[in-house]
């Protein structure tokens, strides 16, 4: 199967008080760069959806970046835009760029479990998290999303197609919304 990743990096960091993707981690990397590095270790093709004003600031190969002029319309709109670049994939792992602590091995496990007709979702101690792998069966539905409703709406629409995968990585539950979130996660 041909599986690629959509890395959503178009948010506005309103609660963070700055551009959280460019915040420095204790190891000197940015939140975005560490997320991309860990994801890239598990999947060959990564498409980054971001705002035009962030393109030059992100530490990434510009050939991976797809600027989205309407990021202010929300995560669902950004995800729908990103689906334009997935037509040749059998499955797509949808990743959030503010989750720098997800292990490469976790991405690999989810990708290995991908199925054209399933939605693979990680669970840690029974709680669902991110990233989520969508088989190509759901690409049209993802392309119709708008507003701030992301792929979670599909989980409710297709419960019979969910394939939960228990992982040992608590980072699937930990995105960064505030400065306190970043400080707490780095201290773990």
- Report the mean per-residue pLDDT as an integer: 95
Tell me the overall shape: globular
Q: What's the CATH architecture name?
A: Alpha-Beta Complex
Radius of gyration: 15 Å
Helical amount among residues, as a percent range? 10-25%
Structural class: alpha/beta
Strand content: 15-25%
Uncertain regions spanning at least 5 consecutive residues: none
By CATH, the topology is Spore Coat Polysaccharide Biosynthesis Protein SpsA, Chain A
Count of individual beta strands: 8
Largest sheet: 8 strands, mixed
Oligomerization category of the chains in this entry = single chain
Q: Considering the protein shown, what is the CATH homologous superfamily?
A: Spore Coat Polysaccharide Biosynthesis Protein SpsA, Chain A
CATH class: Alpha Beta
Helix count from the secondary structure assignment: 6
Can you write the helix and strand succession as a string?
EHEEHEHEEEHHEH
Cα separation of the termini = 36 Å
Structural domain count = 1
